[in-house]
Amino acid sequence: MSHPAKDGRRVTDISSSAEAGGPFAWRQLVSLPQSFADRRRLFLVAMTIPAVIYVIAIGIVPLARGIWYSFFDYNLLRPARAHFVGLGNYLDLFSDPDMAEALKNTVLFTVSGVTFQLVLGLAIALALWRDDRFNRICLTLILIPVTITPLVVGLIFKGLLLADYGLVGYYLAQWGLSAPQGLLASPSTALGTLVFIDVWEWTPLMALILLAGLKALPGDVLEAAAADGATPLQRLRLVVLPLMLPSVMLALTIRTVDAFRVFDSVFVTTGGGPGNATNTLMVYAVKEGLSFFNVGKASAIANIALLCTAVIAAAFVLLIRRADKKANGR
Amino acid sequence: MTITRFVPDLARRGFLLAMLAFFLLPFLWLATTAYKPSVEIFSIPPHFGFTPTFDQFAKVFLVFDIWRLIAVSMLIAGCSAFFSLLLGVPAGYALARSRHPLAMGIAYFFMAVRMIPAVAALIPFYLMMRDIGLIGSWISVVLINCMLNSAFVSWMMFSYFRSLPPELEEAALTDGCHQFAAFWRVALPAVRSGVIASTLFCVLFSWNDFLYPMFLTKLDSKPISVALLSAYGTKDITWGTLGALAHFSTIPIVLIVLFLNRYFVQGLTRGIH
Predict the structure, then answer these.
(1) How many A/B residue pairs have CB atoms within 8 Å?
(2) B132 touches chain A (CB under 8 A)
């Protein structure tokens, strides 16, 4: 299949008489580009296209259909009565107290969860900074929660926190530290407990990303700061943190976007309850769509979540660009 | 080591050990409930010690068709990993090598797909699968997993190939090597660790996913993750049974990740940048 190229990259021997009637005659038939640059371009496009088409067909088309559905009053139980309502679904959601509650819960869950993860993750990353055997083993083991599916994580904590016979929940209830029905079943503590579960599962990931940022810091700057007699805390605040700001932002982006679309752990532990206390946007959308088959409304909720995610991601990308410029500009 | 260094070091290790306990004990609790007799699981007040038994495993085999659940999970994870790599690795390579301004945009597009809330795609995808009669089949789960995974693999392999200097392939191309051969024989072996990491993440994602299979599969095509959820809430199924079930669903994947830890850590830090 290979053509010995005499003049470097320009392989132009395809039309030579030896090959014209040979196995490569089809090249003339479909008149493929002859220069190397053109064939290279064609090759690269051909390698990319299948993945692009697949992702658009299976991913983007459903999303677009979801936007389309959100303009209809469309219930699967009575599909014949579906009709166009324009922005009706969205306007309804604006005055829907359940939607307000779901949005509030999602924002609260995301902001508090990600904040705790950042603080604890930074502490762990700093403790793991030095590259010794103890730290390497610690890092390996500490990442275990990340590999466990959120479904099982939810079940673990649900079991531990059960007020009647859970290993932790029983004592919390006995000692008056939680409501008698347990942390997850009490409206005032359920959301906080979900935040705790999220912190348990994702802090290790946060720590890992921050650790990667720490290890990429220029050693000479740190040594200079130490030689100047800066205390460890000063070094952290004035040298380390500003320099690793890009990786902090990256970790925040990933965790914020993921926390905002939380579904699994909430669905398993509380299902949005008690009442509406832990209803998040995703749980609300699934309930509307696949329990009540209210496709129009569910699509509208999902699209609002999608829009929020896009705005959050875009905001962070802008901040990262600025942080990058700052960190590299000194 | 002087005393001024020794004390902070001790504090640091103490902190890390406390963190290890915090992150590992809940998981160990689930694993050990599998060996507790039901009576002791429900004992009041609850306690940690117990007399080990294998009753829970016997019950799991009685209630669940374990091997079938595992087979379906492996089928879904295997198929979606295979097709995601088939689509994603060449795309990642081509995007990394192309100098066209669009290439970067497509790469970011693949990264953005990762951020789509799964639920936003679920409802329309469900209706799409209903229209073509794939609801209730594991194939529909592979289709959607493949979409998310191939986008992720494209992005991750893009970052791996980009950090690979193109000179090696250029030399091969100059020597008359076919373009595909330059990719397959020269570039791909050089990013072996990226391919392993991608495979690991595809398998991890599909094996752990339960939202899509919960709504897209039915009784005889459900994977083990969905069985785990239905295990909870049924009356005669205790936390012990759940712990035993976790031995088949969760512990293997944790062991695989521990075994391939180097690639897991590398992929986590590289794939998301």
Answers:
(1) 253
(2) no
Kind and range of the H or E element at A73? strand A72-73
Instruction: Write down all domains in chain A, each with its CATH number in brackets.
Output: 88-329 (1.10.3720.10)
Distance of CA B203 to the CA centre of its chain: 5
Which residues 243-302 of A are in CB contact (within 8 Å) with B? 250, 254, 257, 260-261, 263-264, 268, 282, 285-286, 289-290, 295, 298-299, 302
Cβ atoms of residues A261 and A306 within 8 Å: no
Rg (chain B; Cα; Å): 23
For residue A266, list chain B residues with Cβ-Cβ distance below 8 A.
none
Distances in Å between the alpha carbon of A311 and those of A61, A95, B152? 21, 22, 21
Hey, what CATH topology would domain B56-271 get?
A: MetI-like fold (1.10.3720)
Query: Within 13 Å of residue B163, how many CA atoms lie on the same side as its CB?
Result: 11
Of A51, A123, A305, the CB nearest to B91: A51
* Distance (Å, whole) CA A290 – CA B52: 42
Chain B within 8 Å of A148 (Cβ-Cβ)?
yes
pLDDT digits (tens, 9 = 90+) for B52-109: 778 778 888 887 888 888 999 999 999 999 999 999 999 999 999 998 889 989 998 9
Domain ranges across chain B: 56-271
pLDDT digits over A218-264, tens only?
878 878 877 887 777 888 888 888 888 888 888 898 899 989 988 88
- Residue B217 in 3-state DSSP? strand
Question: 106-125 in A: which are within 8 Å (CB) of B?
Answer: 123-124
DSSP for A189-245?
Answer: THHHHHHHHHHHHHHHHHHHHHHHHHHTS-HHHHHHHHHTT--HHHHIIIIIHHHTH
Q: Which of A47, A138, A156 is facing B27, going by the closest CB pair? A: A156
Q: Which residue has the tokens 């979801």?
A: A66
- CA A75, A80, A82: angle at the middle one, nearest 5? 50
Say what the ipTM of the complex is: 0.89
